[in-house]
Every structure is written in structure tokens, then in C-alpha cells.
Write a structure and sequence with these properties.
Helix content is about 30%, strand content about 15%. It is of the alpha/beta class. The protein has one domain (about 30-50, about 60-230). A 7-stranded mixed β-sheet has the order 1-2-7-3-4-5-6. The longest helix has 17 residues, at about 195-210. The radius of gyration is 18 Å and the shape is globular. Bound molecules: iron/sulfur cluster (SF4). Iron/sulfur cluster binds near residues 148, 151, 153 and 155.
Amino acid sequence: MVNLINKVNNVIDDQLHITQFKVKTNKLYGFKAIGSNTTSNQFCIKMNDPTKKIKINNKDLENNINLKNYVLICNANPWTNFALWTKRKDLIQKFFDKHKKPKNLILIYSNPSVDKPIQKTFGHFDKIFNNVSADKFTNIQNCTGQQCINCLRCYNKSSKNADNIIVEKVRNVKNAPNHICKACYSHKGINFRAHTMVKPLQKNSDLLSKDILKPIQIPRIIDRFFRFNHHGELIT
Ligand code: SF4
């Protein structure tokens, strides 16, 4: 309704773009997600290519606007479990040392090192997501081959360590790099489909990181499970 009014009145669209996964072969089939633009995120650019001379903003992490907005969305939708993958352990630590973490927010540390699985959660993280080469750690690979909708390990909190340590073989890459961001699926996907993907993802980057969302901009989610950042990373 708001979008319709905005279109009719020719007003700038200020609603978050929500991605729906409708392709049956997609790992996230059946899910909805809010992503942001990986290719404009300083942290992602640097992690994807460490030779680039880029300074990552590390100031005022305890008041990060992106996380404040995610917390607002979680609190407005208490029936939905939100899973957030992030490599920004510095940001998560500082922010949630100061702010209350919603019960329906599941924080997943995305371990950037390949073949060095972390086998225990730490800090504010509920789960750890590890990547390994296809032929290594085969006895502990537990996120290989299935779709999230048929698994949901990442979308339900658990007190069992076995439920909270996720290990996936690196997908669609012949020789796994030592650092998962060097084989970033998001950078590749966005660069390949820049004409359709950049605009909605950059709109989300701007809306999530520049200001606190107004009440009318906070999406109401009707799903039981939801994903933050299928593309992109927390923005500082
Ligand atoms: S372990 Fe997590 S990422 Fe892997 S299929 Fe299950 S829910 Fe999805």
C-alpha cells in the first residue's frame, strides 16, 4: 500500500526490499530475506581483495545503526526467528555488550577461514558457520546437500553444541581458497546481474545504515523464519 502510494505520488521509495526465494533448486527456496550491497560495503571489498587500500570504519560500533534497525525489526515481529550471518565479531561484541539481544535473533558467526572449523560458540554468537574443502572434515559436514527449509538448524536456537556448529563444504569452487571471502558468491552474483541486483540491495544498504527506520518502514513479517544478509554484511 505504501509502495503504491509512493509510486502514484512519485515519491522516493523508502521501504526495504525483501527478497523471496521462489526457485525450487535454490538452497534458500521458500525463505524471505533482507540483504544489502556487498559491492559497496568497505568490509566486504577488503575481505574479497585484501590488496585493496580500504579503511574500514571501526568507530562507534556500540551504536551501530544497521544493528539497531535489525533489533527493531526483530522486536516488531516476535513470532519470527531471524538468523543473521556475520563475520563482524568486533561489532557484535561491542554492540550487544551494550544492547539487549532479542530472543528471536540468532547470531551466526561466519568463520572466514576455510578448513579451520571452530567447534564451540563464543561471545554473543548462538552458532558458528564453518566452510571446509569438499574432501576434508567429511565426518563433521552437516550442511551439505540439503535445503534450509528441510533442515532449519540455523533458524532454531538450541542448547546442544552439535546443533550450533555448522560445517559446509565450499560450494561451486574447484579449489577452495584459504579465506572464504576470496570466493564470495555475493560479489560474483551482484557483478554478474548488476542491472537488477544493485539498485534494491543498495537501497537496503542506505535505509539500514544511514538512519533509524521510522515505524512505518519496519516490515511486518508473516513467516516463521527469516534471513538477514543473504547478500552483504553489517555496515559500519
Ligand atoms: S545447516 Fe543452516 S545453512 Fe545449512 S541447510 Fe541447515 S539451515 Fe540451511
